[in-house]
Specification:
The protein has four helices and three strands, in the order αααβββα. By secondary structure, the protein is mainly alpha-helical. It starts with a helix and ends with a helix. The mean pLDDT is 81.
C-alpha cells in the first residue's frame, strides 16, 4: 500500500499534536508539584473521595484550563481567580517546551509573572478548581 504525501503529513501532524500534549501534561504536573499541590492517599472513604476529586481537578486543569477551553466551569473558575487577584490572567505553554507560563494582561503587551507570583496564582487556581469539583461531585 502506498501512502500519499498528504496522508504522511496528516500522520506526522497527529503525532506532533500528541507529543505536544504529552509535553504539556508533563510540564503542568511539574509546575503543580512545585506549587505544592500533590495528591494525598489514605484508605478511608473521605480520603478516596478526596483522591477522586484531586484526579478530576488535575484533568480539568491540564485538559481544559491550560488548553483554553470555553467550558462554563472553566469560565467560572477563571472569573473567580481574576476577581480575587483583580487581574486577568492567560495560561500558556511556550514553544520551547518550558513550564506553563502565567501572563498578566496589561494595557500594552501581556506581562509574565515572577516565579513567586506564578506559584501563588497556580496554587490558588488549583484550590478554586478543587472547590468547584468538590461542590459538584455527588
Amino acid at each position: 500500500m502506498t501512502a500519499t504525501p498528504q496522508q504522511v503529513r496528516n500522520m506526522l501532524r497527529t503525532y506532533g499534536k500528541q507529543l505536544t500534549s504529552a509535553k504539556r501534561l508533563a510540564r503542568f504536573r511539574r509546575a503543580l508539584r512545585i506549587a505544592g499541590v500533590e495528591d494525598a492517599v489514605t484508605i478511608s472513604k473521605e480520603a478516596k473521595r478526596r483522591e477522586l476529586v484531586d484526579k478530576v481537578t488535575n484533568e480539568i486543569m491540564e485538559n481544559l484550563i491550560i488548553a483554553g477551553s470555553q467550558n462554563p466551569m472553566v469560565t467560572e473558575i477563571m472569573e473567580q481567580l481574576e476577581l480575587e487577584f483583580q487581574e486577568r490572567f492567560m495560561l500558556e505553554y511556550p514553544l520551547d517546551g518550558d513550564d506553563v507560563v502565567v501572563l498578566r494582561e496589561t494595557a500594552g503587551a501581556p506581562d509574565e509573572l515572577d516565579p513567586q507570583e506564578k506559584r501563588m496564582v497556580l496554587k490558588r487556581l488549583w484550590e478554586i478548581t478543587r472547590e468547584k469539583v468538590d461542590e459538584t461531585m455527588l
